[in-house]
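Continuing the batch. This is chain 6 of the set; chains 1 through 5 are on the previous pages. Same settings as before, nothing changed between runs. Recording input and output for traceability.
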Amino acid sequence: MKTIEFILPEEIEKRSFAIISEELQQRNIVLPKDEEMVTKRVIHTSADFEYADTLTYSKNAVAIAKELLSQGADIVTDTNMTLAGINKKILARLGGQAHCFMADEDVAQIAKERKVTRATVSMEKAKSIQKPVIFAVGNAPTALIQLYEMIQTSDWRPAFIIGVPVGFVNVEAAKELILETEIPYIVNRGRKGGSNIAAAICNALLYEIMR
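Output for chain 6:
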């Protein structure tokens, strides 16, 4: 039987990260210093150490994302769950705002007329934001596919892509498309991910800035 630890509420997260560090050491996993706190927060959110192997970062990804957020970049998500999980107080303090267009009536109507997903139309709508945008995709591979198509067919560019949708249909292929672009990214290879993972990555970056 496992022993129950009595830990003060404010110490729980600190203890969790200590356990994560201990287990990474036991597994002989050494995370790159600049990526360490992002990967650890994803593991903290999921209790899944596989992310230490599958989270994939473009060159200087964390530094680039932190600089964008520090300068007031906005975040666009593909689910209201990710939107709810992002620390919007810190984001606002830096001059940024988080958006999710999935429930917008115009998005639903256009998606129905064109027989595409709301995520597809949401990515198109985000093009109207007149400032750098970090896309945090945790659910819909069609969002990543649409971002890729917009990159290929126009001069518009997202500032950064967090690509961690979860699932079975087109998920892995959609992530691989983003890896082919020159856009800075944090992508989780394979089927795993989710809205909570997308939010965790955003928050890890925000907390690193405020440290």
